């Protein structure tokens, strides 16, 4: 099950699960990988790619795929190397370079019965991925302390985002939200000697969740993903057949329901995630290095050019990348 692209040098405490939606192209995938390595996250975490199908996986060149075939775990088992002066009995020393394993799965391997198909006419990758997490995260729950779920197409990681949260509780879950306020009109009470109803405006706040990234402790992410899967089924049964439901809408509904998530320490991050086209302006004001994550925007911007300008603005990076 699964394909091992690269075996890590040692056991890692963090796991990144990156799902690849159907319309992700090669340039988007390549840029995600490039920035992921530059962020330093691959030196601290194992990486799992979740593909919709074998044809989807074959479009991307992560590296030459091969299976272990020897029954060993692919989850970053420590590797030791021997010095030329070491005897056969010597255990050797840990390699100096540190990087995690890179593994790929198709959704049919983790959810072969396609359990959500009976509830939804159209099942995009953004929803089906939640049916894959119980098996995947259940298998690795004893190996990792922190987990990040991220969308390859929508987000780019500039700096390790988990660095801010590694000392938090294992039940913690962090989601990026935007608070929105809506007005609803309700009938007020009648006044004395007045038969007319008085309309009063009541403001209601709710959170719009960015579904492209979710991170936290392993226990919290597992609990949240199980709850999300149940909520997808519940919402799909309530809606009329043929009416579409969105991942973001269900996540936003969950974010406002403290009772359902009572066993999760949910933390809503309200700081905005800038879009890639804003990087040039942020760099000019000296704020570019303060952002760990950026969103791809839908404009006709030369994203590679914008990203390389950001990378080359760093003196150290400008000496490393030949593009600068």
UniProtKB/TrEMBL annotation:
A Pfam family assignment: DUF7780
Region (Disordered): 170-207
InterPro entries in UniProt: DUF7780
Taxonomic superkingdom: Eukaryota
All copies of domain DUF7780, residue ranges: 59-271
Biased composition (Polar residues): 174-185
Coiled coil: none
Designated name of the protein: DUF7780 domain-containing protein
């Amino acid at each position: 099950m699964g394909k091992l692209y690269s075996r890590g040098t040692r056991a890692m405490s963090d796991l990144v699960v990156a799902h690849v939606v159907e319309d992700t192209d090669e340039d988007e995938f390549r840029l995600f990988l490039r920035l992921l390595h530059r962020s330093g996250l691959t030196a601290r975490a194992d990486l799992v790619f979740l593909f919709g199908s074998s044809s989807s996986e074959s479009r991307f060149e992560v590296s030459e795929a091969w299976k272990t075939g020897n029954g060993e775990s692919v989850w970053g088992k420590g590797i030791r190397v021997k010095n030329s002066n070491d005897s056969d009995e010597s255990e050797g020393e840990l390699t100096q370079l540190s990087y995690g394993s890179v593994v790929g799965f198709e959704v049919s391997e983790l959810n072969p019965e396609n359990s959500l198909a009976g509830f939804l006419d159209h099942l995009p990758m953004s929803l089906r991925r939640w049916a894959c997490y119980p098996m995947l995260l259940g298998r690795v729950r004893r190996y990792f302390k922190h987990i990040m779920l991220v969308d390859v197409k929508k987000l780019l990681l500039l700096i390790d985002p988990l660095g801010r949260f590694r000392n938090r509780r294992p039940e913690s879950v962090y989601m990026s939200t935007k608070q929105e306020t809506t007005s609803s009109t309700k009938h007020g009470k009648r006044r004395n000697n007045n038969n007319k109803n008085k309309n009063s405006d009541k403001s209601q706040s709710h959170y719009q969740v960015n579904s492209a990234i979710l991170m936290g402790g392993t226990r919290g992410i597992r609990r949240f993903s199980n709850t999300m899967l149940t909520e997808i089924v519940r919402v799909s049964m309530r809606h009329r057949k043929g009416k579409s439901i969105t991942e973001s809408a269900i996540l936003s509904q969950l974010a406002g329901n403290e009772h359902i998530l009572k066993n999760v320490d949910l933390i809503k991050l309200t700081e905005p995630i800038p879009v890639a086209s804003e990087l040039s302006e942020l760099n000019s004001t000296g704020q570019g290095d303060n952002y760990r994550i950026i969103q791809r925007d839908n404009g006709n911007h030369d994203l590679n050019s914008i990203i390389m300008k950001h990378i080359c603005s760093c003196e150290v990076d400008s000496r490393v990348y030949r593009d600068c």
